[in-house]
Specification:
With 299 residues, this protein is α+β, with helices and mostly antiparallel strands. The chain is 25% helix and 43% strand. The protein has 6 helices and 16 strands. It is elongated, with a radius of gyration of 25 Å.
Length: 299
C-alpha cells in the first residue's frame, strides 16, 4: 500500500478500512499530531484516488480538509467516513471541523448532505488572489458523529461500494446456494417440504468430482444439491464437519477480471477458472477472508 512521505512498515497512527476505500495516516514533517495526511486508495482497483488531511490539532479538536481526489472518483462519502473514524477512534479527537468558501456550493452542499452541523459564516475569512471570501464552518463532535452521522454516511457509502463492485466485476448477481449432501435424493426429500422441486436433470462433473441437482421454489433461493462422485472427496471436509452450506454462487461478465479484483482484497483463488459441465461456461472458486467459499460463473 502506498503511504505518503514514509513506507508502509514505518506507519504510526490510524489504519482502517471500510467499503471500497482504504485510508492510511502518516506523520507529516516533525510536528507530531499537528498535520496528518491520508492517502485514499480504492481497494477494488488497488489504485490511489486522492488525499485528505487532518491538521491544526489542538485541545482535542482539529480541522479536516486538504481534500484532493481524481475527477472521476466516487470516494467522497467513504473517505469522509473513514477520516472521521480515524480521528475519533484512532487519534482520540473530540471534534472535527472544516471551513469552506461560502460560494463553493457543491462542497457546502456535501457537508450539509452528510449531516454535519453548521456553525455559521466567517466573514472575509479567506483571501485568494487579493480577494476576500466568506467561509462556512461545519463541525461535529464524537458523540454527534456516532449518533447522527455514521449510520447515514455508511448507508450512502455502501450504495457507492455496491455500484463499484458491480461495475468492476461485471454484474455480480446472486445465482444459487450449494448444499453438500451425502445423498442428493435424501436431501431433496427434506427440501421438498419447503416447496422445492427439481429444476432440470441431474449432472455429473468429473472435474469438480461431484454429482449435482438444481432445485427451485417460488420466492426462495435456488439450491444446488451436490454429492461426491465415487472415489471423490470434494465435499468430505464439509460433510465430516456437519456443514451442509458449501458455497454461494454469483454470475459475472468477466470471470478473470472479477477474480483478480477479489484477489486484491485477500480473497484467495482456490480453484482457477475452468469449463463447467452444467453451465457450459467458465467457473472458479474463491475463499473469503472468513473462510466461506464462493463460486463465480461467467455469463
Amino acid at each position: 500500500m502506498r503511504v505518503l512521505n514514509t513506507v508502509r512498515h514505518h506507519v504510526h497512527g490510524a489504519d482502517t478500512k471500510h467499503g471500497s476505500v482504504h485510508v492510511v495516516a502518516c506523520e507529516h514533517g516533525v510536528v507530531i499530531m499537528r498535520f496528518r495526511i491520508f492517502v485514499i486508495e480504492n481497494i477494488l482497483s488497488g489504485k490511489s484516488e486522492g488525499l485528505i488531511a487532518i491538521y491544526d490539532v489542538k485541545d482535542g479538536k482539529a480541522e479536516w480538509g486538504r481534500w484532493v481526489v481524481k475527477k472521476d472518483s466516487v470516494c467522497a462519502v467513504e473517505s469522509f467516513c473513514l477520516l472521521c473514524r480515524a480521528a475519533f477512534e484512532k487519534l482520540g479527537l473530540k471534534e472535527l471541523y472544516c471551513r469552506t468558501i461560502q460560494d463553493n456550493i457543491p462542497v457546502v452542499s456535501f457537508h450539509e448532505s452528510v449531516k454535519q452541523k453548521n456553525r455559521g459564516a466567517l466573514e472575509n475569512f479567506f483571501t485568494l488572489n487579493g480577494k476576500k471570501y466568506n467561509a462556512v464552518e461545519h463541525y461535529m463532535d464524537k458523540e454527534y458523529f456516532y449518533s447522527e452521522v455514521l449510520a447515514h454516511v455508511e448507508k450512502l457509502a455502501h450504495a457507492v461500494f455496491e455500484r463499484s463492485l458491480r461495475a468492476i466485476s461485471g454484474g455480480l448477481e446472486f445465482h444459487h446456494i450449494a448444499v453438500a449432501c451425502k445423498n442428493i435424493e435424501r436431501d431433496f426429500a427434506a427440501f421438498k417440504f419447503l416447496g422445492y422441486a427439481k429444476e432440470g436433470l441431474p449432472f455429473n462433473d468429473p472435474l469438480q468430482g461431484v454429482k449435482g441437482q438444481f432445485i427451485a421454489a417460488r420466492g426462495q433461493p435456488k439450491l444446488e444439491l451436490l454429492e461426491n462422485l465415487p472415489g471423490s472427496n470434494t465435499l468430505t471436509p464439509w460433510l465430516e464437519n456437519g456443514n451442509k452450506m458449501y458455497h454461494f454462487a454469483y454470475t459475472v461478465k468477466d470471470i478473470e477480471t472479477a477474480a483478480a479484483s477479489f484477489a486484491k482484497n485477500r480473497i484467495k483463488l482456490v480453484s482457477p477458472a475452468k469449463d463447467s459441465v452444467y453451465f457450459g461456461k467458465k467457473i472458479c472458486f474463491l475463499m473469503l477472508t472468513n473462510m466461506y467459499m464462493i463460486e463465480l460463473i461467467e455469463k
